[in-house]
Amino acid sequence: MIPIQSKMIGVLFCIAMCVNKATAQLKSKGLEAGINIGTFIYQGDLTPQKVGSLKTPGLGINLYVSKPIRNNIYLRLNFALGKLKGDDAKYNNPLWRQQRNFNFKSPVAELSGNMVWYPLGNNDYANGRRLVPYVSGGAGLALLRIKRDWSQLNREAFTGQQSFFDGLSADEAHRLPRVIPVIPIGAGVSYSLSPKISIVTEASYRFLFTDYLDGFSQSANPARKDSYYSISAGIKYSFGKNRGIDCPKIRL
Fold first, then answer.
1. For burial by CB atoms within 10 Å, which of 25, 186, 199, 240 has the most?
2. pLDDT class for 71, splitting at 50, 70, 90?
């Protein structure tokens, strides 16, 4: 009878350990948090470069938490702070940019929800899967405080171009946006340094629905929407992994 009681106690102990561990896993199963630091790059009317205004980068910081919702798919809440800048005077080709001399700057506070997909699976340090790529996409809102400046405009250089001055008058009368919707699309690479810590590099492009990110539209190129992107690197911490529940082995 005593051996049977001992076995029952062992089984109950195993069940208790499993329940306790399962509860802990449900609380933090696969939860991740990270911080990235990098740069924000403006793309729009005040730069001739297709890759954006690399001559006026702004500092950016990115904070996020993510949690798995399906195999290899994570839901990520992202908060970013940065600065966007553009300046015609930085470019001398074409020469009229230095005569127009438009410039702007704006801080950005962005909150977004994203789906992150690891096509090869997320980091698994124990099993040797340390370097993994990922892609992401989502939607969010960006809070702006745009300050535009055309005080250095050489008006004589645009003599006879009434449409330009009409456009500038329209821009001056246009109310600048404070909150805009954003569609972030990104890709990155994560490399595990330990079971809990990974380093991350990421690029994220923001599609916008406004041509007034830089404060100018009708006097510049109203057919082209503005946008911006970020390039960053940082650290990700994993609080828990969904790798099953390891119960203590009891011989019956």
1. 186
2. confident
